[in-house]
Every structure is written in structure tokens, then in C-alpha cells.
Design goal:
By secondary structure, chain A is α/β, with parallel strands linked by helices. Chain A is built from 9 helices and 5 strands, in the order βαβααααβαβααβα.
Chain lengths: ~210, ~210
């Protein structure tokens, strides 16, 4: 019988660790929706901000001195609405924030990246996973997926992870990849993609079983 | 049928997360030896250094300016033997290092803390787990185990974790509690002690199955 779940599953992941693939397989096996870059399109539609801007600012945060000065002048309004004079990347974060919240309200799903674990903190149906992998495997995966010179892959991985970490550390009050933030952190190089999916499904069955 | 394993299991843990209990149950269910503070006694016997000193310096590192100066003057000798003029806490680390290596050579076991994951890095039979827990649960567990005033528990937990982190970060080239260092990081407040044990056993079966 197909495993059922009532959980909202967030997947944070090192670049090249196979987190997206794990999340996608999981959503298929559990029969629940999957959101990775799909989130950007929905957030664009809901906020009216052009989708290209979501893609450009996806999981990145510009931490300039000027930006911090500007930040002080354009706080979020007290009713939580997006201040029209707020810097663009904050508007985009908040639009995604709203989208993630509304998707979670609809029921079980898998959401990859974009601080979803932080956005949905306090929601007892949310389970947070972090996927890591060996340097070798991540490199192989990125080489197969992107048209990029071999000697530039290490740098590409390092910069992408740094960007994701900066984004997460800035918008949350936690540290990206710190074991204590997640339900379970899995090294996909040890388990394989299918092993990680099985492990998460097993985790869900333990967790939901404990609550019954 | 009792699950069999060929793995050496290391458990790193936040103070009060139940890591010791998880490791102990795991060793019982897998029928393999368990080493936590037991390591200190063995290392004392093997090195000839008095056991009280192992207890005193257990998982702690004195990072004083003077100590660093001294460090420069007393490197480990090239044959890897313990230099008799080396500062005591380094002697103790290296004696534990030797003990952990020799225990791992004897076969499957569970080792709690003491940088065992780092000491045994590169050994393909080693599986590394990190256990976290909620602040509330950790506090409850410490209150039940130690005779300590309630208003001092938070500080006790914070200092113990800081000591363990400093020890780990100093002797390894990694960061304690960073998801990428471990096979699997588990939040025991989500799974319960038994759930964590089940999850680790399931992980072992996936991992060892992949290798067959």
C-alpha cells in the first residue's frame, strides 16, 4: 500500500547533493505536490512581480553596506504587508514567504530550499531535512547537469552554497547546514538517492506513528 | 532475527540529547560493544596515564595563549609517538586516539563522542551519527540526571556543548554539529530514543545493503 503522510516536507540541500531529485522522488512516492523552482512561478503570479526577477534573485541576498542603510529606511510595515518602497530582494523574499505559507496551508507537499523550514517554523506538521554529499559526487552531478568547464566546477559549487547559506542565515536566525535546525540530515553519497528517499519515508512513518 | 552489522558506529551528541542512551540501546540491539566513558579507563590502562586525568580533561581543550606558545615548542614527534614533554591534554588526546583506533580494529562497536568520527575518518566501515534535541527535552534530561539548581541548567548545557565543540573543532579540521560531517543527524525530540535507534538500524541496513 502506498505510504500516506500528513506532513509538509522541506528539503534544504548542498548544491549537487541530489536534494532536488530526492524531494521529487519522495513527492511521487507519497503522491503529494513538489515545489522547487515551481515556487517562483507561483510567487510571481500571486505577487504580480515579474518572474524573471524571482529567478534572478533566487536564494540570493545582496549584503552591501548601502543595502543595509537602505534596509533601515524601509522596514516591513506593521500589518506585515510588503512596503512598496522596500528593496526588491526583500519584496521577493516576502512574496515567496507568502507563497510557501499558502502552499503549506493546502496540505502535505515537498518544498525544496528557499528557507521553507524557517518560514514554516512552529507548524507541527512540518518535517525538515538537509541533504549533503561528498565533494566527488557533487562535482560529478554538477558536471552532468551544467555546461561548465571542469576546472570551474569547484568554484561554482562553493559559490552556490555560499549564496544559499548567506540567504538562509540572513533571513532566518539560524545557520544553514547546522544539524540542530533539521529533523534529519542525510549524506546522499552514503545512502544513494533511493536510500535517502527510503530513509525519509521511514522517518515520516516513525514520526507520524509517535503522534498517533 | 537480530540485525547484524559490520559497522563501527560513532555517536556525537549535544549535551542532554540522549545520545549516550541511543548508542547504548543500539549496541545492545546489535550485540556489539559500547564505549562512552569506558574509553577513558581503557586509554588510561593502555597509556599508563592516571585515569583521573582522563576524566578531568575529558572532551575539553584549554586554548590559552600560553598553551599555544607551548604547542609550538612541543610538536608530536615524526614517528607519531607521544612526546613526553608535550602538554598533558594533548598526550591525553593522543592516548584516546590510539585506544579508539585499536577498538575499531577489533570489529563493530559503538563509540560515543571523543572525536571518534575524526579519528576513524577514511575507514569505510565507520558510520557517523550526530544527535540533537529540543532545548526543553535536553533541560528535562539534564535535570533528571544531575543534582543541579534549575536556574543553572541552561548555562550548564551551553558550557558543556561549547566545551565539546571546542575540543572537536580544535583536534579535527571540521566543525562540530555541521551536517556535512556525519552520515545522519537526528533530532531525538522528534523521533524519541527508540525512534532514533530504529532509524540508525534502518540506515545501517540501507548502507550495508548498498555495499553488498
Amino acid at each position: 500500500m502506498k505510504q500516506q503522510t500528513r506532513s509538509i516536507i522541506t528539503i534544504s540541500r548542498e548544491f549537487g547533493s541530489g536534494g532536488r531529485e530526492i524531494g521529487h522522488k519522495l513527492s511521487e512516492e507519497l503522491g503529494i505536490p513538489f515545489y522547487d523552482k515551481e515556487l517562483l512561478e507561483i510567487a510571481s503570479k500571486e505577487s504580480g512581480i515579474c518572474q524573471e526577477l524571482f529567478v534572478k534573485h533566487d536564494e540570493s541576498y545582496t549584503n552591501s553596506f548601502l543595502m543595509n542603510l537602505v534596509m533601515g529606511n524601509y522596514p516591513i510595515s506593521q500589518d506585515g504587508r510588503i512596503n512598496p518602497e522596500m528593496p526588491l530582494n526583500h519584496k521577493i523574499f516576502l512574496a515567496q514567504f507568502d507563497t510557501i505559507k499558502s502552499l503549506a496551508e493546502k496540505g502535505p507537499c515537498v518544498i525544496v530550499g528557499r528557507c521553507a523550514d524557517y518560514v514554516l517554523r512552529g507548524n507541527k506538521d512540518v518535517l525538515n531535512f538537509f541533504i549533503t554529499g561528498s565533494a566527488y559526487d557533487k562535482k560529478q552531478r554538477i558536471a552532468a547537469r551544467y555546461d561548465i568547464e571542469k576546472n570551474k566546477i569547484d568554484d561554482f559549487i562553493k559559490k552556490t552554497d555560499k549564496r544559499r547559506a548567506n540567504y538562509y542565515n540572513y533571513y532566518s536566525d539560524m545557520r544553514w547546514g547546522d544539524a540542530k535546525n533539521y529533523d534529519l540530515c542525510i549524506n546522499s553519497s552514503k545512502t544513494g538517492i533511493d536510500g535517502a528517499v527510503e530513509l525519509i519515508k521511514y522517518y515520516i512513518s516513525i514520526k507520524e506513528g509517535n503522534e498517533n
